[in-house]
Amino acid sequence: MELLPRSPGEFGSARYWDRFFRQRGQRPFEWYGAFPELCPVLLKYVRPRDKVLVVGCGNSELSEQMYDTGMCEDIVNIDISDAVIRQMQERSASKRPKMSYLQMDMLHMDFPDAHFQVALDKGTLDAVLTDDEEVTLSKVDRMFAEISRVLQVGGRYLCVSLAQAHVLKKAVEYFSQEGWVVRVHEVATSGDKQQFVLPVFVYVMTKFRKIPGSALQILEMCPEEQDKPLRLESTERLVEAVKDRQHYALLCSQLSKAPCGEQLSLDLCDKASGRPRYTLHVVDSPAVKPSRDNRFAIFIIPQGRETEWLFGTEEGRRQLAASAGFGRLVTVALHREQRYEGMASIQAELSGKVMELAPPGLPARQQVPFLSVGGDIGVRTVWHCDTSPLSGEFVVEDVKGDDACYFRRLVFLSNRNVVQSEARLLAPAPPPGQKKRRKDKKKPGPAEPPMAIDKSYLCCEHHKAMVAGLCLLGSSDPLPGTPIAVLVVGLGGGSLPLFVHDYFPQAHVAVVEIDPSMLEVATRWFGFSQGDRMQVHIADGLDHVAKLAAEATAQYDAIMFDVDSKDLTVGMSCPPPAFVEKPFLEKVKTILKPEGTRWALVVVPLQVPGLGWLVSD
């Protein structure tokens, strides 16, 4: 504890560092980042003939290892501590004649301008930039200015850092404003990851002549698992990308030490686009007695089934893990914007990354099983993507469900875990004279025409409840065949009004839909059509009911509400509050015939898909 400074300001004091190195003795002190881990990054930017300046060298072995491996020999090491410089001179004088150690303040260096091709800093910036005080920032500005002065155009400033947000932001803003190219590498770690949790980064700032009046910034990030850099648009975005890597490292560290009490989730993004490619949930089952073969498994959720209760809810995933019989199960959801070749390619792509989420005690070479339903990754065909001013981005897609049935879905991308509308598809009939094959394994391709809609099937449980109520209304009618007037608020894919139209011949259906894009979607993709007994009004449901109520004429035998608030903060699929408030319900009562019945979809919790309430009047 005697080696620790009394205050952060002592990190810039020569007296503190003299005392530090005298008490520590000859033992090398490495802040972080061993040479074998840093070497792949250093080799990209340090050439054998480069003249290299190491600022704040301390008694680190980094320069010696660079020299001894032949990476570079013309290395000048400087430090503010005279004690450590004398130590290092004694240690290397006879072994490394081309390398020198000088006692010097990096804020006031004696070197001429453009004297070096590389400036290397391992932990020095982190030690100096301890706070956001004006004195500290002024000192850092002088440090950066001196490094800039002694580097040639095309020279590289390599800064090894833990990348605290304020440190990274300061470095990136300073050098990018000077017209330098800034690239941040994450260092690939090896060995015992429990020893040091936070990842190490190397900032690579390449000096270019500043172009007057130019605001161009080139900012890039190189994660440890890929060589190709990702171009980022702003300093803030670069800082956020580094934070994501740090949070992931902390997450992996926590998972490697003990079971997690709550389910953890993370997105793995596509290298090229930066968009989410896989969504992972880590589920621990304490009740499972661990053995060699049931510690850890990966479950690939078939495409299009990620919204099902078993895969899309915490309780469902917990049941899945317990049923599978593994102590830790990682579920993997596939994203519709991405392409996947098959189970084998997904396994090859994920094997290295998911092992970072392994439970404590798992042997390093333990084979981890990849599981799925039926052994495949499912089928998803996206037929239509569009954007509506009212509903935002949405897609129409076909997915394969249980028993080889296919379903067409409308999904609003603002809430990917909720299927807005769903319809079952009919298998195409075989040509005349051709027998229908019992099992057709051919998957529908994008070029094939879509299958027909099965209008007899109601996918939503709350739709079934509404239709059941409508049956009760018909049974009380003394004159069978008497027309029934039905108002449906909310069209979606149109399955509910279609079913009422086709299976209640006496029903005359009026549908109110606020978004004209949904009428187009229902007509083109879900088999919806208007006619003598089916009319659609493009209007706000609240306004339409209010307008009818103002006419004071009872018009409808039944009113069905099938609307969603689209408010993600609610955490469930349900109508906007205005649809269940008393003043509005009074208006609804006004337009119902005296013997009529009212249905309302009140609440549909996400954790229990299909649960609906039937409200009768």
TrEMBL record:
Positions of the Methyltransferase type domain: 53-158
Q: Which GO MF terms are attached to this record? A: methyltransferase activity
What name does this protein carry?
A: eEF1A lysine and N-terminal methyltransferase
Listed A to Z, the keywords are: Methyltransferase, Multifunctional enzyme, Transferase
The protein's matches in Gene3D superfamilies, at most eight in alphabetical order, are given as: Vaccinia Virus protein VP39 (3.40.50.150)
In this chain, composition skew of type Basic residues spans 434-444
What's the source species for this entry? Bambusicola thoracicus (Chinese bamboo-partridge)
The annotated region (Disordered) lies at 424-450
| Record's keyword annotation contains Cell division | no
Q: Which family does it belong to?
A: Belongs to the methyltransferase superfamily.
**Superkingdom, according to UniProt?**
Eukaryota
Q: A single GO BP annotation from the record?
A: methylation
